[in-house]
Amino acid sequence: MKTAAAWGLVLWMALVFEHSRSDLFPSSSLMLPACVGCLFWLKNGLASILAGLALIVHWLLFPTIAPVDVAVVLLLGTIFVTRSEQQGQWTPMGSRQSQHAWWVHPMLVLLAGLAAHSVLHTGMNLSQFISASLARVIIAVPCLACLVFAIRAADEFGWRRRASL
Fold first, then answer.
1. I need a labelling partner for 36 at 20 to 30 A (CA). Which of 47, 101, 130, 154 fits?
2. Inter-residue contact 55 to 31 (CB < 8 Å)
3. What is the C-alpha radius of gyration for the chain, rounded to an integer number of angstroms?
4. 160 compared with 5, residue with greater pLDDT
């Protein structure tokens, strides 16, 4: 429960920073990496609820036509988390490439969410889409990279309690 409270504070602070300094942080440049980090750290239903609530509040503060980015992030994140939990531990029959690609799934979820968010904000204008996406990616990818490396370090050093299956 302490972990969920800590992630709630992280999501709240990302929302506060984005809302208070919209000139410095483009919309969803901090919120989406924090939500993806929450989904891949907790890997349970509470993570989906926390990330979903944070993204819905973010959508209410920065309204668009439809919250497609919320749906994309939650759906892809849930699919990747449940798939990785079902596969279990690595076996000698598994491929080496899948063993070292622990950072790919969070990055795919983030990039898909940022693309959906940029499409909604720019209205399919290609020049605006590229500049808006680039501004968001420059901030979001390093934030998520730090979170993903923290997740990996917590797994390697035993700092994170794992649910027994």
1. 130
2. yes
3. 16
4. 5
- 129: closest CA among 18, 26, 60, 33? 26
Length of the chain: 165
Alpha-carbon distance 142 to 116, whole Å? 19
Token pair for 115: 């693309």
Residues 6+ apart with CB under 8 A from 40: 77, 80, 81, 105, 106, 147, 148, 151
pLDDT digits (tens, 9 = 90+) for 58-104: 999 888 778 888 899 999 998 988 877 665 554 444 455 555 567 88
Distance of CA 32 to the CA centre of its chain: 5
Q: Which residue has the tokens 């420059």?
A: 138
Q: What does the pLDDT look like over 92-138, one tens digit per residue?
A: 444 555 555 678 889 999 999 998 888 887 777 788 888 888 988 99
